[in-house]
Amino acid sequence: MTVDFYELHFFTESLIKAAGTMIQRKLTEDLTIHTKKHAHDFVTNIDTEVEAFLVQEIKNRYPSHHIISEEGFGDTLNELTGTVWGIDPIDGTSNLVYKQADFAISIGIYHDGIGELAYIYDVMEDILYSAKRGEGVYQNQTRLPSRIDRKLEDSLIYARFHYIDKNLYGIKELINQSRGLGSMSCASLGLVALGKGTIDGMLNKGGMKFWDIAAGKIFAEENGVVFQGVDGSPYTTGEEKDIFCAGPTLLAEVQTHLKLTL
């Protein structure tokens, strides 16, 4: 089946902005908060209501499409055949709960396993990051320049701070050779920073669920970022394994270090 990605693009832009307006309105009301896997793994009524809205609108417009989403309103799939949406209605829920900032709506669209369109909407800043395969990355309507592929000594690495306590993959030595360490509790905005080149590399333990990384991977790859397992193996979107992602130059340096720690 032929997919009109331009029509799909305009529909998704409008949809994600409508969801952002919904979030802004909901933030003026009482917030219902529950925990999932652990005490700091939050889900709110906004997460579930926004996901329900997105899924319903997509199914109404594109009944043959499939959806993989965090809060369970989507489909159960074993493969990415046809057109598949990866949706995280609120990426960075803890940030929404604590400071009502630094969270995003994340939507990635794949066709037969290939990432085609990405949308990451920083709701509170009203900034929409987007990418279309082969056509570059955008901040609102402005195309962003190509990122700089820096060497390790000039690079800023993103990782979770508890990786340092455990010295995961000898990360202390890696950080000591770089410009420093940063962290962000919103995966999609972290991958936007990686794709823009405001950070240079990212280590993630255990990989990410499909909805966590569907949009961010498309965005970052479109501007030259490479995703690999820490052992140098290829990485498939949503595969749950330890990964490092960076530009080719930094990735080659880091992979040499990582392989020595395996």
UniProtKB/TrEMBL annotation:
Binding site for Mg(2+) 1: 70, 88, 91, 212
One family name in Pfam for this protein: Inositol_P
Required cofactor(s): Mg(2+)
Protein name: Inositol-1-monophosphatase
PANTHER family: INOSITOL MONOPHOSPHATASE, INOSITOL-1-MONOPHOSPHATASE-RELATED
Binding site for Mg(2+) 2: 90
Keywords: Hydrolase, Magnesium, Metal-binding
Coiled coil stretches, renumbered: none
A GO molecular-function annotation: metal ion binding
Matching SUPFAM superfamilies: Carbohydrate phosphatase (SSF56655)
Matches recorded under CDD domains: IMPase_like
UniProt-listed Gene3D superfamilies: 3.40.190.80, Fructose-1,6-Bisphosphatase, subunit A, domain 1
Biological process terms in GO annotation: inositol metabolic process; signal transduction
